[in-house]
């Protein structure tokens, strides 16, 4: 089958032998990753991602030896596999389990990082690659800015925003970049952002309404779980169908589902959805890292790049330096700009936190690989050496950052943050794709400021909104939510309370 | 992507437009099926299968109109889709949720129906089709006995056995059938049966041992659920890799996992696995019925069959008659033979139960369609009219039996069984693929004979084994299980007791 196209085609009765071999190997390796990851849980130098990448590398070597140097690949990468089956559950689960209150409290900062960070990074790296292409005569800047904008601009704030930007950038004509184009870019981005978000929220609310009104649990809890899964997936598909960002849509669909829908289902469905979404996401993430490791040894790509080892290393380290610089160029300035708008010292982003945000964003890999392959495969059969060098350099950068950075990040965070250690820090290293979002939540210093205990604003609402914008907006949102939304769509307080919200007990009321 | 090959190929950015449209339509229809199925839950004339088939028919009409009569298909059927993604979860869940005690108590009867029933049915239908092919000059008997053996022999006892037989029959040379061939067939069947079962049990025990020894729940409940899912799927893949029956393997893997593994995981993992397996199976089943309905209007198949409406109806009704007769030819004799070996009247299969077993087996459809497509697609590009007529006749038979039989079965069972109504009867109509197995459990008349309360055999074990073979075997199995198996692999009693076993509280101790 094409989705997991096996490299060697064999004869078959029901299924092709190569497909079965490929799937057996991959499922066996996934089991091994999980067992090893469990055994290394207390180890400071390893985590599930590094285990998966290393196991993938090892099996790549084995396949290379077995096939006598012909191929290291068992599965041919397909962007369908990634964008239809692996990415949606990861992003949906991220939305479903995100700490909603802290996410929305820091929403302005996140947007700031997302939009301006990506733009700054994009400009710097476009500049840098144009210099490389002049010096090395290797990279064709006219053909690759889209890829670069993603591969490295991706390392910005979160996967969702960069995919939106990737779509936006793709739909623009880059032959003449001027102020108008920049405005056009901004408009495209804003349009995509708001329509995608609205679609996700609408689908989530529809699922909550349907489940609340029809009360599926009366007959079968399976129907509740099935409706939640199917509607989440449907929101992603609809967004892709309307040329919106499926990633953003399913992310917000996850948020709305955990806020409303999740409270309308029976208790066993709550436990089931909470854990099964997390499990599916976990399997998908491990699968991607395993694949990246195995794919790194694909000699076809290395051969067709025609570059010497020296050139590869030189290009890779230059790109790596650009990533470091590109990230530094926006993380520190934007963090300081954001600090200017914060009234209280406790909510400012300290330098050590800025450092962690800068560092943690370097570790991402899976989405980068997928997007660069997508760009690569779009060039069709014309496998130019430039494109192959791009891919191999990307693989080097991603492998290096996953393995080296991944294993020292725990230590670094402890060394930098230990005097101010909070539980959220150790969480942050687990899920790299939301690293930055979570790190931002660290700045939420004043624990006493809980939504429920917050003193009601007595004075002018407008004045409060200006002085404490996020807290006040949160207060009014809660009033609106309790008065209009929850009676219609359900949610906590409108169904019997159950402990163990998917986002944790403390954050459930935002 | 090929797994869900869209009929119309469009240009794409990330994903092909036609794939997105196809998936959106299918996921939307699945949601509609679930909602409508829920609303019709109290309706006696409809169930989820008939809803799905009818919805599929309607959308087939819509697609036919939109495409101006070009095609009614959105997705091209792929046996990979069916055998890799839809069938394994259905069968695994059947094993996971089966009432183990009653299943094994009636194991001999089930095997009797499975093996001899299939053989009788196969012979009768081979004979019947050879008569058709002489009279109509349409069907080529030399090329189609394999298909017939499955399409109608399938309607026997359970899907697993018939797929084993399908594999067995395929590997034999049918040019000269004699006693040696029959022995060869029996040997192949027994070999496949025992090796597949052993592989499934081994995988299940391995998962139980790994989870019990390493205690995954200590760090993450997600790892437990992931390991259970992956190892179940791995068992299926390994069986296919070794040319065994993946269906039988994953069925027994499910049984072992619910008996041992399920008790070794944390409580939230228990709830999660129980419900998520059921949900995935439910979605897969609905998907198949939806597809069958939509596919029935595929005009390419109807065109290439070149048969007049009269011929189609004639062939279909002849085949249907053969199915009825073939089933009757083994259900009633075998049930009476089985009755001869039963000592107590209460455990005999009454005539009314025999009638239900005969009737219920006629309703199956999904596996039949899949196997006939598989046979059809194996003939490659040579789409002969004979094959097309085969397919269209199969579709007519399956549609008719699903819609007509499906909607009157509830009434029939009530009319026949009402004086002796038991809760299990209404259950039986829900999951057609295990219909027969479950109906057999009805004969387990003596409720007082619970494994725990059973009086210990005082006399000669051998005499007891002869007089009450199943009860005695069960007693010794429980002794062996408690002494050797559970201490190693876990299971109820060796971990804290939790109510709500996947198979229901009463059947958990077998």
UniProtKB/TrEMBL annotation, chains A, B:
Topology term for the membrane: Multi-pass membrane protein
Stretch forming the signal peptide: none
Residues that span the membrane, as ranges: 20-40, 52-69, 81-98, 110-134, 146-169, 189-211, 231-256, 277-294, 314-335, 356-375, 387-408
Any one Pfam family match given in the protein's UniProt record, by short name: Na_H_Exchanger
Localization, UniProt: Membrane
Catalytic activity from the UniProt record: K(+)(in) + H(+)(out) = K(+)(out) + H(+)(in); Na(+)(in) + H(+)(out) = Na(+)(out) + H(+)(in)
Coiled-coil annotated spans: none
GO molecular function, one term: sodium:proton antiporter activity
Domain Cation/H+ exchanger transmembrane stretches: 49-132, 144-413
Any one Gene Ontology BP term: regulation of intracellular pH
Key words of the record: Ion transport, Membrane, Potassium, Potassium transport, Sodium, Sodium transport, Transmembrane, Transmembrane helix, Transport
Gene Ontology cellular component annotations, sorted alphabetically: plasma membrane
Name of the molecule in the record: Cation/H+ exchanger transmembrane domain-containing protein
The organism of origin for this protein: Liquidambar formosana (Formosan gum)
Lineage: Eukaryota, Viridiplantae, Streptophyta, Embryophyta, Tracheophyta
């Amino acid at each position: 089958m094409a989705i997991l196209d096996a490299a060697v085609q064999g004869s078959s009765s029901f299924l092709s032998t190569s497909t079965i071999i490929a799937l057996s190997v991959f499922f066996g390796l996934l089991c091994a990753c999980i067992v090893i990851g469990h055994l290394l849980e207390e180890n400071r130098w390893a985590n599930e991602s590094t285990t998966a990448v290393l196991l993938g590398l090892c099996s790549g070597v084995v396949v290379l030896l077995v096939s006598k140097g012909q191929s290291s690949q068992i599965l041919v990468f397909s962007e369908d596999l990634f964008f239809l089956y692996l990415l949606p559950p990861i992003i949906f689960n991220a939305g479903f389990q995100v700490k909603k209150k802290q996410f929305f409290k820091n929403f302005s900062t996140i947007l700031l990082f997302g939009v301006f960070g990506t733009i700054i990074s994009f400009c710097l790296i476009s500049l840098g690659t144009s210099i490389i292409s002049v010096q090395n005569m290797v990279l064709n800047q006219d053909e690759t800015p889209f890829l670069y904008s993603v591969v490295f601009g991706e390392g910005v704030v979160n996967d969702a925003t960069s995919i939106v930007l990737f779509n936006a950038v793709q739909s623009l004509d880059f032959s003449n970049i001027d102020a108008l184009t920049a405005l056009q870019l901004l408009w495209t981005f804003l349009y995509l952002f708001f329509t995608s978000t609205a679609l996700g929220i609408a689908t989530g609310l529809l699922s909550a309404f349907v489940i609340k009104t029809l009360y599926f649990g009366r007959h079968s809890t399976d129907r509740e779980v099935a409706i939640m899964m199917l509607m989440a997936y449907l929101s992603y598909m609809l967004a892709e169908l309307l040329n919106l960002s499926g990633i953003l849509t399913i992310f917000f669909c996850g948020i709305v589902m955990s806020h409303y829908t999740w409270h309308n289902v029976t208790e066993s469905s709550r436990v089931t959805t909470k854990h099964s979404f997390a499990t599916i996401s976990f399997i998908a993430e491990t699968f991607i890292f395993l694949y990246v490791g195995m794919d790194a040894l694909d000699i076809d790509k290395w051969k067709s790049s025609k570059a010497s080892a020296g050139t590869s290393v030189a290009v890779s380290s230059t790109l790596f330096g650009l990533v470091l610089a590109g990230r530094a160029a926006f993380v520190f300035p934007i963090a300081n700009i954001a600090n200017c708008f914060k009234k209280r010292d406790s909510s400012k982003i300290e330098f050590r936190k800025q450092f962690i945000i800068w560092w943690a964003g370097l570790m991402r890999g899976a989405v980068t690989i997928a997007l660069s392959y997508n760009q690569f495969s779009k060039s069709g059969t014309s496998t130019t050496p430039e494109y192959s060098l791009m891919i191999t350099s990307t693989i080097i950068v991603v492998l290096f950052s996953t393995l080296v950075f991944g294993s020292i990040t725990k230590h670094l965070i402890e060394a930098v943050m230990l005097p101010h250690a909070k539980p959220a820090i150790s969480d942050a290293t687990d899920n790299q794709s939301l690293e930055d979002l979570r790190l931002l939540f660290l700045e939420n210093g004043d624990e006493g400021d809980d939504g429920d205990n917050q003193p009601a604003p007595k004075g002018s609402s407008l004045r409060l909104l200006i002085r404490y914008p996020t807290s006040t907006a949160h207060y009014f949102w809660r009033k609106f939510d309790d008065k209009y939304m929850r009676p219609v769509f359900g949610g906590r307080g409108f169904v019997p309370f159950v402990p163990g919200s998917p986002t944790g007990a403390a954050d459930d009321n935002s």
